[in-house]
Amino acid sequence: xxxPAQARSPLGRAGRRLRSRTPxxxxxxxxxxxxxxxxxxxxxxxxMLVGMFWVDGELTTRPIRRTLAAPGLAELLLNTVIVVVAxxxxxxxxxxxxxxxxxxxxxxxxxxTDSLPLLPFLLPPVAGAVGWVMLLSPRAGLLNDWxxxxxxxxxxxxxxxxxxxxxxxxxxxxxxxxxxxxVFMNAAAGFRNLDSSLExxxxxxxxxxxxxxxxxxxxxVAPSLGAGVLLSIWFGAGMFSLPAxxxxxxxxxxxxxxxxxxxxxxxxxxTEVAVGLSGFVVAFVGLAYWLQFRxxxxxxxxxxxxxxxxxxxxxxxxxxxxxxxxxxxxxxxSTVLPMVALALVSLNGFWTPDIAxxxxxxxxxxxxxxxxxxxxxxxxxSLGLGVVGGLVGILGAAAVALYVARxxxxxxxxxxxxxxxxxxxxxxxxxxxxxxxFGGPPFLLSGTLAILFIGYLALYLPQASVAADAAxxxxxxxxxxxxxxxxxxxFRTFRKVYLPLMTPGLVAGxxxxxxxMVGDLTASAILAGTGNPVVGFRILEVFTSGSYALLASLSxxxxxxxxxxxxxxxxxxRRSSRLGVSASVGGV
Amino acid sequence: MDVQSxxxxxxxxxxxxxxxxxFRRRDGSTVHAIDDVSFEVHAxxxxxxxxxxxxxxxxxxxxxxxxETPDQGTISFGDRVQFCARRDINVPPERRGIxxxxxxxxxxxxxxxxxxxxxxxxxxxxxxxxxPTIASRVREALELVGIPELEQQYAAQMSGGQQQxxxxxxxxxxxxxxxxxxxxxxxxDAKVREQLRIELLALQRELGFAAIFxxxxxxxxxxxxxxxxxxxxxxxxxxxxxxxxxxxxxxRYVAKFIGTMNEVFGRVTAIKxxxxxxxxxxxxxxxxxxxxxxxxxxxxxxxxxxxxxxxSTSDPVAANxxxxxxxxxxxxxxxxxxxxxxxxxxxxxxxxxxxxxxSGSDVWVEVSDVDMLVxxxxxx
Lengths: 588, 380
Hints:
A: MetI-like fold, two-stranded antiparallel sheet, 2 strands, B: Rossmann fold, CATH 2.40.50.100, 37% strand
């Protein structure tokens, strides 16, 4: 080519662009955000691990020795294992059953059975725990009273009971209710992706419905079930509000309750033993991980293909309506009943089985929440932290998710893994680490809103990351590429393609974070105090002082706030899904 | 001052020189996705990049679009260099001034068909025009692809073929001199695909843009391409017109990838001008030399197409004769597919119309020395 000099001149204008190896400002910023978010989790975690061997500037085994000598350690561990394992086993059976009915049979009732079993996942466990106490407390429990009333009609008269929530079965039941959504969510996804021709082939080979379920369906979805059980164990091991409110009065103490007690209700706080016990929680969850890995590795699991076409549902025939009634009955008992109990007690003004139906009013609710300065402050703090923390969390996670999706490599993979790591560690443990790191010098953040902000952010980072990933993955690789080829600069592509497509997903992610942060009790119990009260802390305080009407009112407000945000966001995401942009709040 | 007169030919629309891109696999080995590829596309050309999956055709196309960064080589459009590894030039896709139709269509789901098509006009700096002009150009483009009535529809409300048309309109609206196609017809059903191919060709002739079209479907390549580039493991195995690729394949790989071939291996015993005599298990075969490197003593393949052979019971006259037994005769309407058993191997023959011979008869398979092709055995 004999191009003269001026023919080449457009080349200079066309740009000596940086090679793509050089990070652009957008990517550099995302990377920094990702590293800061990871540091918020990793550094406290390391601080906690170091704290097991390093106290006051010297190497020591004292925390470990003192932990092993802690009073009632064996019982503590055994209690935790029993509660978590038993409730996970129940959750597995119930969750798989619900998911199978909903995804593989004609018992499904659209959105109703798709979403309702997930509700406990979105409602704060602390509210549910209080609700169950209101229902099944041996003397004043509303449900117990109603049952006694029914029994007296047939001539049986009992003083109290027949049920007692403050018992082994009560504790395990409440744990199971909150663990079911984890199994349901994963199992439903597994069943949904299952190629129904696998089942049909089994039926044609002469296997009946149950044999097909046992020999084909369940083994194929085993990885999904395993993931669900793992989540349920993880949830149970770090759960604080349920055992504190249901288990403690029954004298059943679990690890998480003891850790909070040592840090918050002991003076001076015994961090050494708290840290040592947190080590057990880490080990427990780690063991569950390892077991799941071993079990799933043994068999070659078919990768359920999503291309099975329209999955054919099993016709239950005459069993269809009984099964539907069973599913709705489960939702009624697990979710609706405790909420009704909360509402009744708070409207009634005090906790008694004799509800004055004609005199229900909002007075008690107003007295308890609006006219009480401490509660008001706690509520304001929680809402503020939820709004801001959720926003910061989801936007940070979105920046990281975009960065990871656009630049697949070692570094981005590490950032992605790092940001999801807290999911593998118990909430309880991270909260302890944050207290150790930021509570003391040089930060001295103990008792401030800042430490709660950091704590919430660190704890709910994995959920933010998963939600942001879902939002980003909706914007498949070719959509932004088509924009670039059409001549749009990166910022225009971001504004015109990424942002509108991601917004529903990000709003849904924000809602999930908001709900988690407002309803949090784990970090709140460890990091909050009278100087920085939040709703979770206030609930705990009120519970300890024994004011049940106030407790019910607080829980009711919590449920109302959560429900309103959830309903608004769901309405918004459903509307946007008409355009092919889908989003969900934690699977709903 | 007259730049044009100093040139013998105008710059090609696209010039790719010594382009290379390597990927590192998980196990540490490197894969040459593109391996020293050079070619040119001129105004009005319709170049099809053809090859099996994994041959690097999509990577090559995406490199031209600026969506991938090659490791070596140069890409220029006209006299403007778009990518040059040595000089560290890499123009981002949004400034290359070309259009592309994606395999998944890549229609933005939150925009109507109209908004999708107007997007390139609104995005290009040089193309920013006042609204009425944009609107009339968008309508023109939608009319061109035959869907003026879908203007206000969202992608989710359209059929696959309709989405494909919107994607095509979006690529044509800015009137670029080069349009890239990444297997755009692989997701629509056979009937719509046939229709779209014909329309696409007509549009290309009418508008005169140069096209680079990626596909793995050889009949699609034959129908659409003014030239076909057959890719093999990141290299261009042959770049020629469909007729030449079919009748004069440069290698066994090309010959077997396009259409069907009978082949038998052997050694060259003599070379006379353009023909070679090959000693094979089926006897001596004489054929046209297809590649320069063939020499006496070389191991080669003698190849011929099923439709260039004939089957008869009378005394053979052609240069190459194979004695065998007619094993099967499958009448498919326009022609008959015959399988002849020759010395323990199957030879395929296509004859027009219906077959008159019965299975089991002893026959001669005849191939002229012009239709017999001799190619080196070692590639592919």
